[in-house]
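Summary for the lay section of the report: proteins are chains of building blocks that fold into shapes. Here we show the chain for MOSC domain-containing protein and then a coded description of the shape we predicted for it.
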Amino acid sequence: MTRRVEHLGSALVKGLSWTSRDAVRVTHDGVVGDRHWSPVTPELRCIKATDFPGMVGLPASAADLPTEGDALFGGEPQTVSYYSQQVSAITYGGVLADRISEAAGQRLYLAQVPGPGSFLWSSPISVLLRSELDRLPDDVGRYRANVVVDDRADPLSLAPGAQLSLGDVLLEVERELERCVIINHDPVTGERDASLLGHLRSGVLLGYGCRVVEPGRVRVGDVVERRSPRAQR
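The coded shape description reads as follows.
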């Protein structure tokens, strides 16, 4: 049976609502527009999903993003703490930052990585296999994967080094993805509605982080093929 791309998605702002896409453009840095923004504290620390899991229910569109007039520090890049990394980013106030602050109950701003790069802790692209959701809710938005592959009729077996061809893009699996409490929250309301970590593979693993071998476009419905790492396209 043919395996196909079932869903595509990204988030304009790290940690906020996940947006389904009909098609995406992929560069070596990941999906264009995916998580180039992150909420930050006044101390310029990126907040974690565990700080405010309910923010997965906060919608954000391109029209909501800050404008040049909302820039802080004269629009000059500042050093932002992103977990153990130090990232150069421009910080903004504005309506969306105010809305996130109100929902979180604390003052927050928005930081943007200028130019290529984004607030991605792991690999540039995340892939989820439908065949792995047998004992889990099938509302795939809660898992926040860039690519969801429908392989239920012919389950894939992936490990680091495996390659996937989809659309114009060739991906290579780098690692299995460790999950956090964010998957316990409804992706629309942000409310906690499940306790799923105990149902994942040992190490709370679900899905795969991939590097981009060949960039291009991917569309929902594209055929997905597993390739040998040495295969030439």
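Put simply, here is one thing we learned. The radius of gyration is 18 Å.
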